[in-house]
Amino acid sequence: MYARKFVVWLALSVLLPLVISACAAPTPEPTKAPPPPASSASAPSAPTATKPPPTAAPTPTTGPKRGGKITMAVWQSPVTLHPFIGTQTVMNEVNIFTLEGMSKVLPDGNRLPTLAKQVPTVQNGGVSADGKTITYNLKEGLLWADGKPFTCDDVKFTYQFIMTPGIGVNSTTGYSDLDSVDCPTPNTVVLKFKNFYAPYLELFAYEILPKHATGEPKDHKDWAWVRKPFGTGPFKVDEWVADSHIVLSRNPNYREKDKPYLDQVVIRIVPSSEVAMQLLSSGEVDIMWNNTEADIPQLEKMAGIKISDPLQIGGERLFLNMAENKDPSDPKKPHLILSDVKVRQAIEYGINKQRIIDKLLFGKAKPGTNEINAGFFQCADFKPRAYDVEQAKKLLTDAGWVPGPDGIRVAKGAKVAPDGTRLRLKYSTTSGNKLREDSQVLIVEDMKAIGVEFFIENAPSSVVIGTWDAASPRRRGNFDIIMYTTNAGIDPHGQMTNLFASWMIPHEGNKGGVNYTRFADPQVDDLLKKAAAEPDMNKRKDMYCQIVKIGQETTNMIYLYQRLDLDSYRDRLQGWIPNAWDNNGWNAEDWWVK
Questions:
Q1: 47-86 tens-digit pLDDT
Q2: What is the pLDDT of residues 188-247, one digit of tens each?
Q3: Is-contact 386 349, C-beta < 8 A?
Q4: What sign does the dihedral 314-318-319-322 (CA atoms) show?
Q5: Closest Cα partner for 10 from 315, 542, 376?
Q6: What's the CA gap between 181 and 486, in Å, rounded?
Q7: Is 395 in contact with 409 (CB distance < 8 Å)?
């Protein structure tokens, strides 16, 4: 879901009884999962991030030591750090240092308990025989960063917050399948589902709210905690200056008493990725968040810089609004132009994806295919729609769009648009991202060649991908095409539900809806409900791939390319381990500086 880069892994196998016998024994060992995909792109010559190599004669100064600070440059400015309200990627990069859930995913795909003693299974008593009751036993002595005890009441309050209607929660997927969250003891959390819910580990996986430090859910905008959020993670927020910086300091009540090693982590907010690169090169920052493949040649020339480059799941895509472009949009009213599937398919046929990859990504990416392009659930049989200008033109002509005097098409017998309507569409993305802006230039050229006019209108991420109450276009529906990256996780159910379920379409009564293309298909809704209740992973995979096929034909999204998950950092930072399943600071308690 949106609280972290990826959703969590579900430790289920072919049939539930068999899964249980195959799951980890009742110890805090990681729960096994299929390994993440290896990168298929050519590796840069700069060393990939790993644990520091041992020296020939270790001394006390070669190991981890306490003290020092690390500065990370980001080129998005968070609007909120509330994990269940915000939707910006940069918010997740901050929150991972402070907030935790029941468990986390390791780089190899295994799941490690964090606040829970064990990942629940039937074998260790955490999952009932019918799969409808999940029990988490919390670790003893857990404290919030302010020193107050962490208990089951906090988990229950988090559930109540998420399910409070009308407050703009970013997703209720999975939580709406719960009957209750019960607290038989302060250290025992019991989740009772209405029906067996296959991705049960997605719930409470990443962030839990401190009941004592927040307040009534409807008043969440006024919580002091929102400006200085803290959790049970290794750091806490000390200062947040909008559009400037966020200062994090060591959590004195972190459960591992000798960690974190660092005194501070500073998130420096800069206007663009180019500025971030300059600061990394000069040594003013230690980490640059979210590099692109176009940065690799420059990074390889920088002394003392390492590159973290696991293959990214999901990828960059265009979201095509199939409902009316209006604030707020009525999802039942069709878009003047994009409601016609022939037009949407023509746009994809007209985009030269390989040219973007070769010119802007140095050939180190793959053409986009579908929502599940890696991992166990990968729908590998789906190929990218070919670049075919003539097919694009034919589809547009068949759809009732004919060339005008200047080559841009106009409606003549189109499905919805009145005759004479110009085939002109607003094309938006987050400002300050050179790769996206350069991609836009190429795609605008491609569209002109088939008689489609794209005009660019970009805005900061806080606007483009913000909340309903902040009048985000993707939420309200007053957009044509928006471009950005989003990703499914090891278990894709949350992502598939968010993007394809009709009940996730945003509207005044569902401000947290994230089905931005306004896609609605009863068959897909039925498949999603069946997948949620199916313990056989192979059957679930088949259902998800059926949805992928329907989505490919519908073309509510156009997948451009699948990138590496690129970040870079100075080699004074030790302990960095790349993790394709989570954000950069997933193991920040182990970071230290030379």
A1: 333 333 444 444 445 789 999 999 999 999 999 999 999 9
A2: 999 999 999 999 998 999 999 999 999 999 999 999 999 999 999 999 999 999 999 999
A3: yes
A4: negative
A5: 376
A6: 30
A7: no
